[in-house]
């Protein structure tokens, strides 16, 4: 399947500081990709590189098979920037007219139907909309462009839990209906858990984990058993995190094969467990692999 996003040793520096470095990923099309990481991890930087709003300092990036940024490419990518930008003085209807004027592939029927379904008053100015309504308007503008890839930077950060759920539900429906790929960032794993089938974890400007969620969950395990030194685990079990009490050890490991040691109770992880294990992986445990632990 065509790659929606490919990066090879991609890096971006602001002044002397790397905001993103050594980023090598290959994301196939047709996924809802969750980009997760703490504040300042480099999420916005990666999204802006993908949309051609920033130029790399090092390495290469290709989006939908070509370098991002030129006019033809911009028509294929929808970008909803952080804080769901809308024009405060324009009404909902004026936003749609502006979208139609700026985008050759504009789907007016989709935009109007969506605004109608959401119950947004076309005559209302954006400044009079709630944060959730503004986010829905920004999503509508992104979708009506009929992009092949929709990029959303923290789209639900300012919304309450109900508006958040509504927004993500709308996004999921639109994704299924229009067969588009989606790349969205969040620092809330619970949002991604309901939405994404592909995950990229960024920590300290580097990709720590990337892959299809099902595969990542199938290859990561929680092992609980009698206290053991991590060095005594088999070489093909990569230790992501380790905790010990006097008598007991709990490891989160990545292993391609089954865990056969009868001493362990083997537990499955949720996406949240998985992400937290990589986020907490501050100090090296052992056998630390290169920054990108799982790549497809
Ligand atoms: N225009 C800029 N000039 C200088 N430094 C910048 C600029 N934009 C971002 N940075 C720095 O680059 C790093 C990565 O920032 P980025 O906005 O990509 O992170 P993020 O993961 O999106 O964070 P957040 O979750 O807070 O939005 C941060 O240390 C940030 O301070």
From TrEMBL:
Residues 5-229 form the ABC transporter domain. Signal peptide: none annotated. Keywords: ATP-binding, Nucleotide-binding, Transport. The lineage of its organism: Bacteria, Bacillati, Actinomycetota, Actinomycetes, Streptosporangiales. The keyword DNA repair does not apply. This is ABC-2 type transport system ATP-binding protein. The keyword Nucleotide-binding applies. Gene3D superfamilies: P-loop containing nucleotide triphosphate hydrolases. One of its GO terms (molecular function) is ATP binding. InterPro entries: AAA+_ATPase, ABC_transporter-like_ATP-bd, ABC_Transporter_VariousFunc, P-loop_NTPase. It comes from the Bacteria.
